[in-house]
Amino acid sequence: MSIQVGQALPDVEIRAIGESIEQTHTGALFAGRKVVMFAVPGAFTPTCSNRHLPGYVQHYAQFQARGIDVMCLAVNDAYVMQAWAASQHVPHGMLMLADGNGSFTRALGLELDGSGYGMGLRSRRFALYAEDGVVKQLQVEAPGEFRVSSAEAMLDATA
Question: Which of 48, 72, 90, 148 is catalytic?
């Protein structure tokens, strides 16, 4: 069962990539903040690199103007996420979350079996809005879709 609106995000160890790689817990990352977190099946994959992450990079200032932090989650290691952030010119302050073992993704109930594509366990494509660690909005994409988890869709959902 996947996480639902009104539920608290699980507290799981994760690596946060900003100016450096920091081992932390999701409970600390989301506490006392308004956050839009979007998840992608994989760094450097076509839709994720050409549309999903670039939309959040482009609209980052609009989220910041609303007092909303932005985080990107993927089941990739921290070094891959760090390289992807650099290649995509992720702005200072936007965190990349490396869920290398998929622990947070599984705790959310939003994992995807990408074994048929040689990718193993990954995250479904989704976006959520949380306040102080409690989910207020959750948008999960249907397989093969990219609509409801876009930066534009989340700007509308958090207006």
Answer: 48
